[in-house]
Amino acid sequence: MLPLTIDTLNAWIAAVMWPFARIGAMLLATPLFGNGAIPVRVRVGLAFALALLVAPMVQVPTEVALLSVHGAYVLLQQILIGVTIGFVLQLIFSAMTIAGEAVALSMGLGFASMVDPEQGVSIPLVSHFFAVITTLVFLAMNGHVALIQLIVDSFRLLPVTEGWLPVDSLWSLVAWGSNMFSNAMLVALPAMCALLVANVSMGVMTRAAPQLNIFAVGFPMTLTLGFVVLLLALPGVVDQLLETFDAGFGLMRALLG
Q1: Do the domain assignments include residue 1?
Q2: Is the pLDDT assigned to residue 117 strictly greater than 60?
Q3: Quick one: angle between helices 143-157 and 125-140, nearest 10?
């Protein structure tokens, strides 16, 4: 039996704390696990449990002391890696929020909003509906399992004290941010085009018959048409979400090298 010394104890603590920093930062930045409705104790407990499972597979440098300047530098590295992984998923969920805002404005539901527990801000009801659909699709495709597998593999792809994320990978993350707007438009485009045709039709009707009360006829028409188009376009939204999640996980692995 090996004697318990201060150096051995520090090595054991470091073997858990550095994975805990990376995993905890990832869970905090991820929309699903970082939801404000989940108690902090649950998130910390989940991160600590994953860190305990990962610790035997992590190669911890013995020359770096946990309570030192170099140790704080390594801790900051792990936090940055975890936040970067969670930020990619945050971009996907934000794309659906933008798509919902565009559809809601076209339908006339821009004023109907509620608080989003993910971001703590008020968003239209259509955006909240898209956020729920995104969460359900993410769980249905076992995205939470793939995310945990990815964070476990990250210690093999980018070991502790190996360094920061590659600069080229960070630039690819910045460039991939434009996909947030393109994916949002791909989701919202069918509804926006249908509602644009409806609005143009009502404009022609108003021009032909000025005595027609367009506010009494147009608002229920656009609202009903918007719900019908959303119902018909829902399978396409799910397919677009699956492609976006696949691209997002591919980007996460590319970021880790």
Answers
A1: no
A2: no
A3: 70
